[in-house]
Amino acid sequence: MRVVAAMSGGVDSAVAAARMVDAGHEVVGVHLALSQSAATLRESARGCCTIEDAGDARRVADKVGIPFYVWDMAQRFKEDVVEDFVAEYTAGRTPNPCLRCNERIKFAALLDKALALGFDAVATGHYAQIVDGRQGRELHRAVDMAKDQSYVLGVLDADQLARSFFPLGDTTKPQIREEAAARGFSVAKKPDSHDICFIADGDTKGWLTRRLGEQPGDIVDTDGTVVGHHEGAFAYTVGQRRGLGLKVPREDGAKRYVVDVQPSSNTVVVGTEDLLGIDLVVGEHARWCGEAPVGELRVGAQLRAHGEEFAATAVAEGERVTVRLDARARGVAPGQSVVLYDGTRVVGSATITATDRRRSASG
């Protein structure tokens, strides 16, 4: 098969590309330029898409003996991921930009361009597995649960899975680094990227404030009492405790958390920890990694990347899914994603639009 190997400049995508060559495919390495003003050097493990990263990817491609190209997708990334991120926070929601990037860039824009150029598939360094099942290719968790990335791939549909390869899913991260060193790759010990790639310093609040400007407002208790002030409700998320700067402590000394963000009034609502527990999740924009489920089904529900999996019952109705958790989850924010599993198989995902409590904490 003719395969485009997405090469970020890191160790994972380097080994993934090499493994595709070893498997006998005709491979071309592609680095996605996603920044309109890429930094020359990486300052830390945060961020990506620097000129240094592109150079690292090119050196690996030369070592493996495959052609290498840089595809400029900065404008598409800005529109589909960065601007979506800002709009979601402005609306009081907490998005996961990695899911949006996978959905709209790596497995939409990249795959579409690859197919248009006559390639058959795309390979990436994600930690996940594709298994041939009775109804076609299935997406499963990786062997290395500490690195499993199936959650952020839950937006892929059956057609995209049919044209995707994840060569690292059966291997642990330490083994990948050992393999990279054995192959003579200079990136064998390169630190992993983490957090939001386009916020290199990790300061999401500061980044949003620079984009949106300060928008002072009140932080109120659940009874409406003003207990503090903020410079922009967009910088807060449900479940947050640090950085609230509350001026009025509770009489009982209990810690308070963000329990609601109300963009219409530019208000942040705080309350006690018990108010964070929810057991009902409603999601929209459902994406199914295969045939859409019919009726009620038992699933495992994961509510954040690398978060725990909750036993649950899901009911799908078109692009809407309702998930009833067996136990309460804490600090779930609208805008995050719920990804549904059947054992290790990814059933699909949806963007959380609402949460609630169906019953008392005691059951």
TrEMBL record:
It is found in: Cytoplasm. The keyword Nucleotide-binding applies. Belongs to the MnmA/TRMU family. ATP binds at A6, M7, S8, G9, G10, V11, D12, S13, L32, G125. One of its GO terms (molecular function) is ATP binding. Keywords: ATP-binding, Cytoplasm, Disulfide bond, Nucleotide-binding, RNA-binding, Transferase, tRNA processing, tRNA-binding. Its EC number is 2.8.1.13. Residues 284-352 form the tRNA-specific 2-thiouridylase MnmA-like C-terminal domain. Catalyzes the 2-thiolation of uridine at the wobble position (U34) of tRNA, leading to the formation of s(2)U34. One of its GO terms (biological process) is tRNA wobble position uridine thiolation. Residues 207-271 form the tRNA-specific 2-thiouridylase MnmA-like central domain. GO terms for cellular component: cytoplasm. Coiled coil: none annotated. Its main location: cytoplasm. The active site is at C101 (nucleophile), C197 (cysteine persulfide intermediate). Residues 147-149 are annotated as: Interaction with tRNA. This is tRNA-specific 2-thiouridylase MnmA. Pfam families: tRNA_Me_trans (PF03054), tRNA_Me_trans_C (PF20258), tRNA_Me_trans_M (PF20259). It is an enzyme of class 2 (transferase). It catalyses: S-sulfanyl-L-cysteinyl-[protein] + uridine(34) in tRNA + AH2 + ATP = 2-thiouridine(34) in tRNA + L-cysteinyl-[protein] + A + AMP + diphosphate + H(+). The record marks H126, Q336 as: Interaction with tRNA.
